[in-house]
Amino acid sequence: MEQGHLPRPRSSEEEGQWLCACDAPSSSEEGVGGGGPTRELLLKRAAEMRRNPTEPERRLWMELRASRFHAHKFRRQVVLGRRIVDFFCPAKGLVIEIDGDTHEAERDRVRDARLRQDFGFEVVRFANPEVMKNLDGVLIALQIALERRPERWLKRR
Q1: How many CB atoms lie within 10 A of CB 71?
Q2: Rounded Cα–Cα distance for residues 13 and 118 (Å)
Q3: Residue 56, SS3 per DSSP
Q4: I need a surface site. Which of 22, 60, 64, 105 has the fewest CB within 10 A?
Q5: Average pLDDT, stretch 116-131?
Q6: What is the tens place of the pLDDT at every residue in 43-87?
Q7: Which residue has the higher pLDDT, 107 or 32?
Q8: Half-sphere exposure of 79 toward its Cβ, with a 13 Å CA cutoff?
Q9: At what angle are helices 135-148 and 55-64 packed, to 10 degrees?
Q10: DSSP letters along 74-118, please?
């Protein structure tokens, strides 16, 4: 199996949540003349997204929260650089994205490569229907992804 490719489970909503330096400002709130949203704005958006998750995000979060999933700590709607990611496991440097119908595969590949280059993080993507119809398969693929990643720091006791 190729590095970075996981078995996909058999088995939407982007809503402006994915941001990168290449995004043009979408409102006067972000300013005119480029530069993208400020960190403060990203943090506000992430907080709002935590309060109002999509149904697939809510279902996966119920499995990941409180270190329930193989004792790995996850965070949700995390600002990494100039982007908000759905879930992040800091100890493994693993990002989980839940993709709705509006995701653009090529654009996502570019942004995922940027996370890998800038931070050394790997991204695992699942489509909304995968999470909704085959959560067990998603969790198996996620477990494999976690096992492949080295620990980023020694565990404290």
Answers
A1: 8
A2: 26
A3: helix
A4: 105
A5: 96
A6: 999 999 999 999 999 999 999 999 999 999 999 999 999 999 999
A7: 107
A8: 14
A9: 50
A10: -EEEEEETTEEEEEEETTTTEEEEEE-TT--HHHHHHHHHHHHHH
Q: What is the token pair recorded at 16?
A: 């402006």
Decide the pairing of beta strands 83-89 and 75-80: antiparallel
**Tokens 């590949």, residue?**
109
What percent of the chain is predicted at pLDDT more than 70?
76
Report the predicted TM-score, pTM, of the whole model to 2 decimal places: 0.77
Number of residues in the chain = 157
Tell me the Cα Rg of the chain. 16
Q: How far apart are CA 43 and CA 91, in angstroms?
A: 21
Distance CA 154, CA 119 (A): 18
- Tokens linked to 154: 């020694």
Domains identified in the chain and CATH numbers: 28-148 (3.40.960.10)
